[in-house]
Recover the amino acids of this structure.
């Protein structure tokens, strides 16, 4: 087996990655379906290159992407950072011995799953036999109505990259950068990304996530990275790739650097624009030194006017993911 480990760094890269894994999930479903075309039952297509098999504590087999995702804290929406296949670790109550007064805890309500994720959960319950067959027959009409709302939800109400993700992830896959105290607009330069990777032990923890997937490989073929090449995540990517080069010098790395088209439409002053161009130049120069092949993934054929006609970010990311799949093919 010649495995590939996938890395996704940055908010936009994870949106593209979500489309990519949805495509892989569709291929898996078509390959297993007896009604699908024979072209999808190609025995030379080995999904174990990208996926790993595992087992939960309950003895259930799992099949999850061999992937490490890095993004802001709170960027997973309704999905837990430990995924949905394994038991959640309950936070332990920490007694503050130096405080004698009353202690109150304020916790926000977890985000509710959208209609699309709810429908996926219902389908999985039906597959494992938890749904009543009679109810399935009688609920055809409401299901059709619900499908309409699901489509509307995906077209206009996607806030997080997990909102349209069909794939289950391993607990080691999803990593959130905590303690940044900055939103995506402020996390906008190469230096901030380098500081974020080195601070709060983020670098060590991300390295451990990657090491988990690499060490279980029989013979790793390489690492493919999809990263935001502008803003702070370019610095995070560069530091991560430096660590990979030191620890796995013989493992080739292919890099897809994704550029959010909305970055070119933001109105900004001349001084700020020059600063961004300089950071982008430093980012591209450093990233290109740390990989065997770098492939820019953008929408160069779209002018600013045409890009604005793509009404939702998901439409832009879907186009870029299609372009990425054509490159991989």
């Amino acid at each position: 087996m010649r495995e590939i480990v996938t890395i996704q760094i940055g908010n936009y890269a994870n949106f593209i990655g979500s489309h990519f894994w949805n495509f892989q999930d569709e291929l898996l479903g078509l390959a297993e379906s007896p009604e699908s075309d024979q072209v999808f039952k190609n025995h030379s297509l080995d999904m174990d290159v990208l996926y790993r098999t595992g087992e939960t504590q309950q003895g259930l087999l799992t099949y999850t992407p061999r992937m490490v995702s890095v993004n802001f804290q709170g960027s997973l929406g309704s999905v837990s950072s430990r995924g949905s296949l394994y038991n959640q670790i309950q936070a332990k109550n920490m007694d503050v011995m130096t405080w004698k007064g009353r202690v109150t805890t304020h916790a926000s309500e977890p985000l509710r799953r959208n209609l699309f994720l709810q429908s996926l959960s219902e389908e999985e319950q039906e597959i494992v036999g938890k749904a009543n067959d009679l109810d399935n027959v009688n609920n055809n009409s409401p299901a059709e109505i619900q499908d309409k709302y699901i489509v509307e939800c995906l077209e206009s109400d996607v806030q997080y990259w997990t909102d349209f993700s069909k794939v289950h992830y391993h607990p080691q896959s999803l990593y959130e950068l905590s303690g940044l105290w900055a939103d995506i607009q402020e996390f906008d330069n190469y230096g901030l990304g380098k500081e974020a990777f080195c601070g709060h032990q983020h670098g060590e923890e991300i390295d451990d996530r990657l090491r988990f997937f690499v060490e279980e490989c029989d013979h790793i073929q390489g690492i493919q990275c999809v990263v935001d090449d502008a803003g702070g995540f370019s610095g995070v990517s560069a530091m991560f790739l430096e660590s990979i080069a030191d620890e796995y010098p013989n493992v080739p790395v292919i890099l897809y650097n994704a550029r959010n088209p909305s970055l070119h439409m933001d109105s900004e002053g001349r001084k700020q624009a020059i600063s961004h161009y300089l950071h982008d130049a430093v980012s591209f120069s450093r990233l290109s030194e740390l990989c065997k092949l770098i492939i820019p993934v953008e929408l160069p054929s779209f002018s600013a006017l045409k890009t604005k006609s793509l009404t939702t970010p998901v439409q832009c990311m879907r186009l870029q993911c299609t372009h990425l799949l054509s490159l991989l093919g």
Notes: The radius of gyration is 21 Å. Residues 188 and 251 are 30 Å apart (CA to CA).
